[in-house]
From TrEMBL:
Keyword Isomerase: no
Pathway field: Glycan biosynthesis; alginate biosynthesis
Membrane topology: Multi-pass membrane protein
Keywords, sorted A to Z: Acyltransferase, Alginate biosynthesis, Cell membrane, Membrane, Transferase, Transmembrane, Transmembrane helix
Subcellular location: Cell membrane
GO cellular component: plasma membrane
Record-given protein name: Probable alginate O-acetylase AlgI
Similarity field: Belongs to the membrane-bound acyltransferase family.
Record-annotated membrane-spanning stretches: 7-26, 46-64, 76-98, 104-130, 311-334, 363-384, 405-432, 452-475
Chief location category: membrane
GO function terms (MF aspect): acyltransferase activity
Gene Ontology process terms (BP): alginic acid biosynthetic process
Length: 477
């Protein structure tokens, strides 16, 4: 059940009507049932998996909250880690490690029979396992007290707007929002609707429309260097619009129900260095990796070489989180290398970005830095999008001018005009958020101007959406 399908909005209309007429406790019970229906629409067989993960972490959380013995607490949190990471290992990484082991034996001159196991990847498993893991780790660290209401905890794990592609919520943020009565208002409905409109424009007007151009180049055995450059720039736009579009819709739907989900993107392509980029891109994952992996490894304690090691390990595992393939490991190595190099030469810096006042000269210098770093980010997206290591080598060579084909020849299918118009709209939107520091800048406009903006968004969505809509990219992770 996709956010871009009419049946989802019919489903949401029914959920909203029931939500309005029910008292708080029954709202939560109804939302839990609705979340299981939503998830079961993908594949009902995996409902047992999410219920199993929920029961395990609920019981471990209760036990951790009552246990004072250090050894027993470590056993309990280790059990949670083993169960959740074990589920990920079996369903997501078994085939990858089995194939890699077989290839390693072949390189050593040994033969091994194929190790196969037909496993379907449950949608959203990477997201909800990280969400439940953060719950038990926070209780272990005594940063959080366990909830005793099992159904509230089950809703925290399965809340349908953010279940399959995030943002990865923390229990200390979402559980109080579930446990306490929520206030519904037309103002929240309006703000949620604008978020949904923005997300749908990103997904069906921009991302889905430019996907065929990107796919054509990455499926071409011998594209020109210019084809590769344009396709990779377009993929950077596609993955941002696709993923942030999902997050916008998820936050908008939740807002209309009185929930507050965390912001997951903050104009990431306005970043001027890798540290700033990861403060703006997939914020729920980057902060999760920082809090539960990087800091656990030692963070920046122990000297600079330990810091670089921890950065590399964190980003490699973050890359592997995205998928069971070596190109994701290579992408993680690339990102870790960028962060380590930036730490070595530039050190750490305070947060920069939205709403910051700058002189004209400062703006021009930043514009140059952002443009240059965007190219660095885009090469990372080539590693991410590539279908094999051989394609990475071939495309990199052609980008640098190698190959027989004329570098400047173009065979990539053209991008629809509506997608270009949508991209202009989105660029202006993100610029205004960046300059004002206000994600709701439009609310300060006069009512006629605001009405014209809403009408323009609806028009762009109605007449610019492509009929070739597809699943969100991050559903495969």
């Amino acid at each position: 059940m996709l956010f871009t399908e009419l049946r989802f909005w019919a489903f949401f209309a029914i959920v909203s009507w029931l939500y309005v007429v029910l008292p708080h406790r029954w709202q939560n019970r109804m939302l839990l049932v609705a979340s299981y229906v939503f998830y079961g629409a993908w594949d009902w067989r995996f409902l047992g998996l999410i219920v199993f993960s929920t029961v395990v972490d609920y019981l471990i959380g209760i036990r951790l909250g009552a246990e004072d013995d250090t050894r027993r607490r470590k056993i309990l949190v280790s059990t949670s880690l083993a169960v959740n990471l074990g589920l990920l290992g079996v369903f997501k990484y078994f085939g990858f490690f089995a194939d890699s082991f077989q290839a390693l034996l072949a390189m050593a001159g040994l033969e091994a029979g194929p190790i196969t196991l037909s496993i379907v990847l449950p949608v959203g498993i990477s997201f909800y396992t990280f969400q439940t893991l953060s719950y038990t780790i926070d209780i272990y660290r005594r940063d959080l007290k366990p909830t005793r209401d099992f159904l509230d905890f089950a809703l925290f794990v399965a809340f349908f707007p953010q279940l399959v592609a995030g943002p990865i919520e923390r229990a200390r943020n979402l559980l109080p929002n579930i446990a306490l009565p929520r206030t519904l208002s037309w103002d929240a409905v309006g703000r949620g609707a604008v978020l949904c409109l923005l997300g749908l424009i990103k997904k069906v007007v921009i991302a889905d429309a430019i996907a065929p151009s990107v796919n054509a180049v990455y499926a071409n055995p011998s594209p020109s260097g210019l084809d590769i450059a344009f396709a990779t720039w377009l993929f950077a736009i596609q993955i941002y619009c696709d993923f942030s579009g999902y997050t916008d819709i998820a936050r908008g739907v939740a807002k209309m129900l009185g929930f507050r989900l965390m912001r997951n993107f903050a104009q990431p392509y306005f970043a001027a260095d890798p540290q700033e980029f990861w403060r703006r891109w997939h914020i729920s994952l980057s902060t999760w990796l920082r809090d539960y992996l990087y800091i656990s490894l030692g963070g920046n304690r122990g000297g600079r070489w330990f810091t670089y090691r921890n950065l590399m390990a964190t980003m490699v595992l973050g890359g592997l989180w995205h998928g069971a393939a070596w190109n994701f490991v290579l992408w993680g190595l690339y990102q870790g290398g960028l962060l380590s190099a930036h730490r070595a030469f530039a050190g750490r810096h305070d947060r920069v970005g939205e709403g910051q006042r700058r002189s004209l000269g400062s703006w021009l210098w930043r514009l140059l830095a952002v443009g240059a770093f965007f190219q660095v980010v885009c090469y990372g997206w080539l590693l991410f999008r590539a279908q094999s290591f051989a394609q990475i080598v071939e495309f990199t060579s052609r980008l640098l001018g190698g190959g027989d084909r004329a570098y400047l020849s173009m065979s990539m299918p053209s991008v629809p005009f509506a997608a270009l118009l949508g991209l202009v709209f989105l660029t202006m939107w993100d610029l205004l958020v960046e300059m004002t520091g206000d994600v709701q800048f439009y609310r300060n406009c006069y009512l006629p101007l605001r009405a014209a903006l809403y009408a323009g968004m609806i028009y762009l969505l109605a007449f610019g959406s492509t009929s070739a809509s597809s699943a969100f990219i991050y559903f495969q992770f």
